Automatic annotation (TrEMBL):
Stated name of the protein: Membrane protein
Keyword Transmembrane helix: yes
Species this chain originates from: Streptomyces caelestis
Chief localisation class: membrane
UniProt keyword list: Membrane, Transmembrane, Transmembrane helix
Superkingdom to which the source organism belongs: Bacteria
Lineage: Bacteria, Bacillati, Actinomycetota, Actinomycetes, Kitasatosporales
Length: 261
């Protein structure tokens, strides 16, 4: 079930939300509720993605997916998707109406819109930009003084999201083309997608360092050094490694924000 939900990325996004909540000084209950709401929403997106792509995955023989091999019954995933969707709505509501509205729009208007058609168009990047860009606001709108996240935080999140999208798609470019999926990475090609992703991840990291008020902390270069290595890895490595490196960059950027206070 976790594999069909794209569990690694889903847990990483929930971890980012949790770390941002800690930085935002949310009450412990609100921190737990926001993190759980984000995780539930991400699970629905992952399960919805594998359900929607099942005919295409079977056509190209992607045996690494449990729905394709039959190891996981489709009915189980449908039920899990419904339960996670309901949990997302309830948990989001507990976080407050402003945060709930943004998170539900993020899940339905970005994540599932991507699954249902945008992934095959020039606009495949837009759900990632909007979802990751507004994720910080899901947290800040649940705080004791609800407010939209600073613009630089939104920009950093959007850059991370689009960079992750470009890298996550690279291993499947050929199979996607065979089944009629031609999103932005397919139209740019592998080389240009890698270059653009590396630039976006670097921009996101610089925003995380330079965005907060005041001078950058003295230890910032020590964090940017491994970020630089990971950015190079996204450009040079193959398979799923570039996407995993992008997720690691996102987590490092958030850790940097938390440490900076």
């Amino acid at each position: 079930m976790l594999s069909a939900a794209h569990g690694g990325p889903a847990l990483a996004v929930a971890a980012v939300a949790g770390l941002l909540a800690l930085r935002g000084d949310l009450y412990p209950f609100d921190t737990a509720v926001v993190t759980a709401a984000v995780l539930a929403g991400q699970l629905t997106i992952g399960w919805g993605n594998d359900l929607r792509d099942l005919p295409r995955d079977r056509a190209v023989g992607r045996t690494g997916k449990p729905l394709v091999t039959g190891a996981l019954p489709v009915a189980w995933v449908v039920r899990a998707l419904a339960v996670a969707g309901l949990a997302c709505i309830v948990l989001s509501a507990l976080a407050g109406r402003r945060s709930a509205l943004v998170n539900i729009v993020l899940v339905a208007g970005a994540g599932h819109a991507y699954n249902l058609g945008l992934k095959a168009t020039w606009w495949s990047w837009a759900p990632y930009a909007s979802a990751f860009g507004t994720l910080p606001s899901v947290v800040t709108l649940a705080g004791p003084a609800p407010a939209w996240a600073p613009l630089w935080t939104t920009g950093a999140g959007a850059a991370l999201g689009v960079g992750a999208h470009l890298l996550n798609t690279l291993p499947d470019l050929a199979d996607d083309e065979r089944t009629g999926v031609r999103g932005l990475p397919h139209r740019l090609g592998e080389r240009l997608s890698r270059v653009l992703a590396a630039v976006l991840l670097a921009v996101a990291s610089l925003l995380a360092v330079l965005g907060p008020a005041g001078p950058p902390p003295a230890w910032a270069p020590a964090v940017l050094a491994p970020v630089a290595v990971l950015v190079v890895l996204t450009w040079a490595a193959h398979g799923r490694t570039p996407f995993r490196a992008a997720v690691a960059v996102a987590l490092l950027d958030v850790v940097l924000l938390v440490a900076a206070g």
